[in-house]
Design brief:
The complex is a heterodimer of chains A (450) and B (868). Helix content of chain A is 72%, strand content 3%. With 450 residues, chain A is an all-alpha fold. In chain A, helix 18 packs antiparallel against helix 19. Chain A is flat. By secondary structure, chain B is an all-alpha fold. Chain B is built from 39 helices and five strands. The two termini of chain B are 44 Å apart. The interface between A and B is large, with 47 and 49 residues. Chain B: One of its GO terms (cellular component) is eukaryotic 43S preinitiation complex. Chain B: Keywords: Cytoplasm, Initiation factor, Protein biosynthesis.
Chain lengths: 450, 868
């Protein structure tokens, strides 16, 4: 797959283009998943207003990339079109027709092979007779309906072929059925991956999330004694999970939890530090939305820690923003990086939609730590920091003071915001520290009693 | 005394007349030699001479009976007839006579014992006699008196035994035991001297008489010897060769080679073997060897014999023999290189037939010769190390010796090529391990050297091999890039080895990376290796390597300006106060517990040669400087509140600081430590400039590459830490402080100052806020805690710590099955994935304790080992 990764740098501002992650992401994605990314690359090239294409050569590169990407799939029609586009032909050469024919015949063949089992699985009496024990199920089907292992395997191959043709929905169904019946661990694991891909590509986020969990479990259990394979599989899972993470709001929390799981954090740090960008954006945009503030803060802390640790290995405007703000407390630098980061986000397939959210949340973040440190801030300076004009900034701050419980006042005459930092009371501290003690002791004694 | 002989032998050209007899008797002689030298180590200094003269001496004849060496020599000298040197003779005689008298006394005692049939005392005396006679044996010739005595004794014993059988009267217990002992001794002993005893038995008078004419002998010897001593050092062999040329060479025919070798091989390892003599013989043998098979066999035996010279416990093999062995190994490898059908492998069968050499059988590709090239190379390497250990590193001798490393490296490299060649043929079943061992050796010679040096080594060793030869594992690389070489070697070992070799390869690579300023890679490898968890299970040399690597990583972090990491990494080694032992760079005097000589010897053996040392003073300097940069702000911070005072980063540093402060008068700084201490004092007082001057005036920074950069880095760090210290110390006395004035005071730009202040405020180290309008720091008042309040805080801390400990204990007991205690996911990360956890800013966090767990290098391996 790595060979198919195209040089799809898409920006004309080279500084931003440097942060394009396409090349790094591609090796860990399935070829079908790279396709949307390439499409996105194409759309970036199209000037929004005029519809003109800005860079002919680039476009051609991308089309070439698409072609080599899909060449090996069975989406023959599309591949043929691409080929025509590339070569400037009107009619696709006959080989494509041949292939198409072949694919069709293969489809038919599998269709026949699996028809019986498919039919069986649609019958209520059969389905009701199935139990949770796979071996027993297979025995039952063998006995009652003459189903063979080969037939079950045919389901798998058929699913594979369907996927390759781009019929994700059908493929997903087939693989589901296969998984119900098969006892071959290896193939079941592959089927789970396949199904995850299908669900992602057909944008069934909810079932995709289920599959993510399943894949995760299978990685943890099946590969427990192969650290390298675990690492690779986790890396892929992390990359695939980006699709639901930024497209399905409900997936955000469980996925973040997954990614902050020590195993996955280690994987990110060891193998794919660029994921930090996505992780950071997800955490920062997630601020305030989440019900659980504690987790939020913890994740932010983790992000800061990891960004710092990995700063020698991976840096982009997003991580540099975090670094400047939370580690160096250099607000000017943070502001500069924020501007750059916005640009980067708008050019990223996954992050495009989160760009505005991110900028907004980032401003909050800046303001929060700014207020924490300062006692008095001039409005003018603050508006510059936030990248807003003075009036907007004023409105923004007023809203902020109203929404959050920030203890601050605007002194309009002097043009300053005055912060009131109540010193943290010692009593409060003592109470904080001893708060959980009772509960924890109880749990402890319960555990001892067990 | 034995020198004497040496002289004698040189002059005794006439002895060649007896040459023919020599080899008939030679078998016997070898036998004789074996057991005479019971006390092996004592023979160290007279051995060479003894060896040298044994040739001429033994050539004499088996019938000749030497009362002592002095006499034994006589016959060879008498003919040279130089009687003029009387006083030397006298001098020599006295020493000899003393021993001879002793011998005589013992013999008399035995005879007395015989008279009264006291076997207990006979056995004692016999032991004594045997001991004495060892010193007087020369070239397998025992003093005649001795021979007479033991011969008589044997007869007497046999008589007694015979009597025993017939008489019903039992001997008493001691006597019986004594008799038994004597019986065994004699049986064993007399075999060695059988020839002489036979001679004695045959004609006892004649045997004893032969002394008479020998008496005047030694004078010449002395003279000759004195002339020769000077030469001997340089061309020992030459002196010998002259003798050889006369008669011996005739005897060394290609046909007889194997016979000689067999004799030599058989005597190997036995006591009182005259190794030097054997070596001489083999050198001759090599000259006459024609076929490759002969050459290889001779060379292999020769090299082994040379190594045997150095087998004494503490001594290394003599320089010239090392060099010779090195040359011979090189020749061996060359022969093997040219004669492709001869191979030396470990699992070959021994060839027993001396008469005809093995020939290439039909279908067989090789003539297999048993032996292990890798063992030879390892031994050669070890010997060099040993000799380097014993030479004073500050002499030119050391440097000279060190130059041999280059040729050794070449040998290792050629050995590697040879093994690669062997490996190509799968049918040979060359164990992977041999290849690993040789690669490990190569790595050992490379990893601690700067890349330029490695480059030179590489260039030289490639020059040695013909240009059509290439290595599979380390292909010819015109740039001789050391980093690349290291990488290739280490990767090979990672893939093909396990256990200690693998761990060592890993450590070597980390060491090399750290040495070349690739801190992050080195650190990541260190953490991913998980060695810190199981290093205690490895052998001590590996632990030493681990410690060295750890220190090197720490130094590298320092060069990068990562003070915190550097201090953290060095802590375990430097904080222990036992750097010397942990790095095997010197033996510490044990104050409390006594070390057994055995331990001491082992420890001495482990010492690294000087050129591999890591400069301990530099190490200390770096460690103290880092500690200063961390400790001084901390001290300032905790200075006011007594309850947090317990937090200590470096105990060693604190102790030194306290000691320094106790001094009533402090003079100008003299050593590194003084400099750092005075700098600390200045820094604590907010005088960062003074502190910088102190630190900069430490001489040892010169040893670091890029001294200037390091100094600038340090100055910057001191500035920042100075600012922090200043704020901590003087905050209580100010209401507001202007950023601008701080900025001028510490010569930092305002942005940096406000960043530092912001950081401190944000981490709640400083009760203050920034006022953007006036550009000042406003200190909040009334945040100081009362005693009760701070105690309450401490109590609550302790309470939660208690709960934590309880939970951990339970978790430990239940082996983590109680998931209810998954308190901290972050922690779990450290435990689970291990490799990345916990690095970075623990300093900023509120948790003052260093976390246990796999987060840091738990260095200081070897601790237990050193404590013994």
């Amino acid at each position: 797959m790595a060979s198919t990764a195209p040089p799809s740098t898409n920006g004309d501002t080279s500084s931003v283009a440097d942060y394009d992650l396409m090349l790094k992401l591609a090796p860990h994605l399935d070829r079908h998943m790279i396709f949307p990314l390439l499409e996105f690359g194409t759309s970036q090239l199209v000037d929004e207003e005029t519809g003109d294409i800005k860079d002919e050569k680039k476009l051609r590169d991308i089309t070439q990339a698409k072609y080599s990407l899909l060449k090996k799939t069975n989406m023959t029609d599309y591949v043929a079109n691409l080929y025509c586009e590339l070569e400037g032909l009107k009619e696709p050469p006959s080989e494509f027709a041949d292939r198409k024919q072949k694919v069709f015949s293969q489809l038919e063949k599998y269709e026949q092979e699996t028809s019986k089992i498919t039919e069986l699985l649609q019958r209520d009496d059969v389905v009701n007779a199935l139990r949770s024990d796979k071996v027993a199920n297979l025995e039952f089907l063998k006995r009652e309906h003459e189903v063979t292992v080969e037939m079950v395997d045919a389901l798998y191959d058929f699913g594979n072929l369907q996927y390759s043709c781009g019929n994700y929905g059908d493929a997903s169904d087939l693989l589901y059925r296969f998984r119900v019946l098969s006892t071959d661990d290896q193939k079941v694991a592959s089927a789970t991956w396949g199904r995850l891909a299908c669900e992602i590509l057909s944008m069934n986020w909810e079932s995709a999330m289920e599959e993510v969990q399943k894949v995760r479990e299978s990685i943890d259990s099946r590969l427990a004694n192969n650290a390298l394979a675990q690492l690779e599989h986790r890396t892929s899972l992390i990359h695939w999970a980006l699709f639901p993470l930024f497209n399905f709001p409900a997936a955000r929390e469980p996925l973040l939890e997954l990614l902050f799981n020590p195993n996955f954090i280690n994987t990110i740090q060891a193998n794919c530090a660029w994921i930090l960008r996505y992780l950071t954006v997800a955490v920062i945009t997630g601020r305030g939305r989440s019900k659980n503030q504690g987790i939020q803060q913890k994740q932010m802390k983790d992000i800061v820690r990891i960004v710092k640790q990995e700063s020698y290995e991976y840096q982009d405007p997003v991580t540099r923003f975090v670094h400047a703000l939370c580690i160096d407390f250099d607000f000017e630098e943070a502001q500069n990086q924020l501007v750059l980061a916005e640009e980067v986000l708008r050019r990223d397939f996954f992050l495009l939609q989160s760009a505005d959210d991110f900028v907004d949340s980032a401003r909050h973040l800046i303001f929060e730590s700014y207020c924490k440190i300062h006692a008095r801030i001039t409005l003018k300076d603050l508006s510059a920091r936030l990248g807003l004009n003075k009036d907007d900034a004023e409105k923004w701050i007023v809203n902020l003071i109203r929404d959050t419980r920030l203890d601050a006042k605007i002194d309009y005459q002097e043009g300053t915001v005055v912060m009131n930092h109540p010193p943290s009371s010692v009593y409060q501290q003592v109470i904080e520290r001893t708060k959980g003690g009772f509960f924890r002791t109880q749990v402890l004694s319960a555990a001892v009693a067990k | 005394m034995s020198r004497f002989f040496r002289g004698g032998d040189d002059s005794s050209t006439e002895s060649s007349s007896d040459e023919e007899e020599l080899y008939s008797g030679s078998e016997e002689e070898e036998e004789e030699k074996k057991d005479q030298d019971v006390d092996d180590s004592s023979s160290d200094d007279d051995e060479p001479e003894a060896a040298a003269d044994s040739g001429s001496d033994s050539d004499g004849d088996a019938k000749k009976k030497g009362v002592n060496r002095f006499l034994a020599d006589a016959d060879s000298d008498s003919s040279s007839g130089d009687d003029s040197d009387n006083e030397t003779q006298a001098k020599v005689k006295s020493a000899k006579d003393k021993r001879f008298d002793e011998l005589e006394a013992t013999v008399t005692a035995i005879q007395n014992g015989q008279k009264i049939n006291d076997w207990g005392s006979i056995s004692n005396e016999l032991d004594k006699l045997n001991r004495q006679v060892i010193k007087q044996i020369d070239g397998g010739k025992a003093p005649k008196l001795y021979i007479k005595c033991i011969a008589d004794l044997e007869d007497f014993m046999n008589e007694t035994l015979a009597k025993q059988k017939v008489t019903p009267k039992k001997m008493n217990a001691t006597n019986a035991r004594g008799l038994n002992v004597v019986k065994q001794r004699i049986k064993k002993n007399n075999k060695d001297f059988q020839a002489q005893i036979d001679a004695y038995r045959k004609d006892s008078d004649d045997f004893m008489e032969s002394d008479e004419e020998e008496v005047p002998a030694p004078k010449v010897a002395k003279v000759r010897f004195q002339d020769l001593t000077a030469e001997q050092g340089q061309d020992d062999d030459e002196g010998f060769a002259t003798v050889g040329k006369g008669g011996r060479t005739l005897l060394f025919t290609p046909e007889s080679i194997f016979k000689h070798l067999r004799t030599i091989m058989e005597s190997r390892g036995k006591k009182n073997t005259d190794r030097l003599e054997q070596i001489k013989i083999m050198e001759k043998l090599y000259e006459v060897a024609v076929t490759p098979y002969q050459k290889i066999r001779v060379l292999m035996t020769l090299v082994s014999a040379r190594f045997d010279l150095g087998s004494g416990a503490a001594t290394s093999m003599p320089l010239e023999h090392w060099k010779a062995a090195e040359k011979e190994l090189a020749t061996l490898l060359r022969v093997l290189e040219t004669e492709k059908d001869h191979i030396v492998i470990e699992n070959a069968e021994e060839w027993d037939d001396d008469e005809k050499p093995p020939t290439l059988e039909d279908g067989a590709k090789y003539i297999r010769i048993p032996g292990s090239v890798v063992s030879y190379i390892e031994r050669l390497d070890d010997e060099l190390t040993r000799s380097l250990q014993s030479i004073d590193p500050h002499t030119s001798e050391y440097i000279e010796r060190l130059t041999d490393e280059g040729s050794l490296y070449n040998i290792i490299f050629q050995g590697l090529l040879y093994y690669e060649m062997l490996r190509k043929d799968a049918s040979l079943e060359v164990p992977q391990e041999s290849l690993n061992r040789i690669i490990q050796r190569r790595l050992d010679h490379v990893y601690f050297k700067p890349s330029q040096v490695v480059k030179i080594l590489e260039e030289n060793c490639w020059k040695e091999v013909p240009s059509n030869v290439d290595s599979e594992i380390t292909p010819r690389d015109p740039s001789h890039d050391a980093g690349h070489l290291l990488n290739v070697l280490c990767n090979y070992l990672f893939e093909n080895s396990d256990g200690i070799i693998r761990a060592r390869a890993m450590l070597c690579q980390i060491y090399f990376l750290a040495l070349h300023d690739q801190y992050y890679q080195a650190r990541d490898m260190m953490l991913t290796s998980h060695l810190q968890e199981n290093i205690a299970n490895f052998d001590i040399t590996t632990q030493i390597l681990y410690n060295r690597t750890l220190v090197q990583v720490g130094l590298c972090a320092f060069r990068k300006g990562l003070v915190y990491d550097a201090q953290n990494t060095l802590q375990e080694i430097c904080g222990s106060g036992r750097q010397k032992e942990l790095l095997a760079q010197g033996v510490m005097i044990q104050r409390f517990n006594q070390v057994s000589p055995e331990q001491e010897r082992l420890e001495k053996q482990r010492q690294l040669p000087f050129h591999m040392h890591i400069n301990l003073e530099l190490l200390e300097c770096v460690y103290l400087t880092c500690s200063m940069l961390l400790e001084i702000p901390l001290l300032a911070q905790t200075g006011s509140s007594p309850d947090v005072k317990k937090r200590v980063i470096s105990k060693t540093y604190r102790r030194m600081l306290e000691y320094h402060e106790r001094q009533i008068f402090t003079g100008p700084p003299e050593n590194t430590r003084d400099h750092v201490m005075q700098a600390s004092k200045a820094l604590a007082a907010g005088e960062w400039k003074k502190a910088t001057t102190f630190v900069h005036s430490i001489k040892i920074w010169e040893l670091m590459p890029n001294t200037e950069d390091i100094k600038t880095m340090l100055a910057k760090q001191i500035q920042e830490e100075g600012l922090r210290t200043y704020l901590f110390t003087y905050a209580p006395f100010y209401d507001t402080l202007s950023i601008a004035s701080l900025s001028t005071m510490f010569e930092l730009d305002t942005r940096k100052v406000s960043a530092v202040v912001s950081k401190m405020i944000s981490h709640e180290e400083l009760a203050a806020a920034l006022d953007q309008v006036t550009e000042t720091v406003i200190f909040r008042k009334g945040v100081e805690l009362s005693r009760l309040q701070s105690l309450a805080l401490t109590l609550s801390d302790k309470a939660s710590a208690l709960i934590e400990t309880n939970e951990r204990t339970l978790e430990h007991r239940t082996q983590g099955s109680a998931n209810a205690f998954n308190r901290k996911d972050g922690r779990g990360g450290n435990r689970g994935g291990g490799q990345r956890g916990g690095r970075g800013g623990a300093r900023t966090g509120g948790n003052p304790q260093r976390q246990a767990g796999g987060t840091q290098f738990t260095g200081g391996a070897l601790g237990a080992a050193v404590r013994g």
